Amino acid sequence: MNKLKIPSIICTLTLALAMGGCAATQPAPQQTTPATTGSTDNGTTGAAQKQPQNSLAKAMAETAAKARTTMRSQTVKYQETTIEATPMWSMNYQGEVHIRIYDAAGNLIRDEISKP
After folding, report:
1. Which terminal residue of the chain has fewer beta carbons within 10 Å of its beta carbon, N or C?
2. pTM above threshold 0.70
3. CA-CA distance, 116 to 112, in Å (whole number)?
């Protein structure tokens, strides 16, 4: 009688662990974009001042997308900066890319992880 209890307990525990592991997935966080507002002291709009920043962000996004699709590190020169994007390898890869931005002298300006 004891011999039958042990395998049934092991099977029950194994099934409970297997089913519990599948329920631990989390939804992806939603990204929000900051809104640009009004005008500044010198009369230019907020969007006009953000143009170089937006084009750098666009170049970063393109480089990250290329790194995601090729699963290889990508290095792109943008004006006097260098953008480097490296996919973050893991067992359950979800599109994370490590982005580094260097200035002309080779100093690290920005270091972040981009999620799709």
Report:
1. N
2. no
3. 13
